[in-house]
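Please fill in the sequence for the structure shown.

STRUCTURE ENCODING:
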């Protein structure tokens, strides 16, 4: 397989959701880390209630302050059809009234990678749950070892990194409002930080 570059899709800046539930209640559910404010690395499917009537324009969204990825059901089901069905964790998304939003789901994938940069780099490991919290600008890249033999990987907060052919097969359908960037696949990280240990966006 040729991994010279991949496509990273992610929610737009306004396509985020807030939670209907109080922080203490979410923390008691066990999947959320109060320290780094992300889903814990071993999280599988999550049912999540939002305060908004529904997510915004893009077929992918996130509850950014809670570390939850959200997708239109038809989009994620189409993606699952075109990839290995194993590794996906799909949960319910509930509206303000507590009813399931049938056209939307939460999602998580067991294969994860960090899209990295080469400028203004910072990262730390959450002392509570082990999540890697990373930020950088500049040239977007990912380690080949994180994506080798993988069609799609989860980058967190609604982001998915996929092979160009897979992206073309879904973007030519009816999903036109996807924000995307080209990510170079490299043998060695350009930020000087090596492998960063366990990857989690």
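FILLED IN BY: designer on duty
SEQUENCE:
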């Amino acid at each position: 397989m040729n991994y010279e570059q991949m496509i990273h899709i992610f929610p737009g800046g306004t396509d985020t959701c807030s939670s209907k539930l109080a922080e203490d209640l979410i923390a008691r559910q066990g999947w959320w880390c109060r320290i780094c404010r992300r889903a814990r690395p071993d999280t599988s499917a999550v049912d999540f209630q939002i305060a908004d009537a529904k997510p915004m324009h893009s077929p992918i969204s996130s509850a950014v302050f809670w570390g939850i990825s959200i997708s239109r059901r038809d989009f994620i089901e189409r993606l699952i059809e075109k990839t290995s069905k194993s590794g996906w964790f799909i949960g319910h998304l509930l509206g303000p009234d507590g009813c399931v939003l049938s056209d939307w789901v939460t999602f998580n994938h067991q294969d994860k990678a960090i899209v990295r940069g080469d400028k203004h780099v910072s990262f730390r490991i959450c002392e509570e749950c082990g999540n890697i919290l990373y930020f950088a600008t500049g040239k977007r890249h990912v380690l080949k070892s994180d994506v080798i033999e993988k069609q799609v990987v989860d980058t967190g907060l609604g982001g998915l990194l996929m092979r160009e052919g897979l992206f073309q097969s879904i973007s030519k359908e009816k999903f036109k409002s996807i924000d995307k960037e080209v990510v170079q696949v490299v043998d060695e990280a350009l930020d000087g930080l090596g492998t960063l240990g366990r990857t989690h966006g």
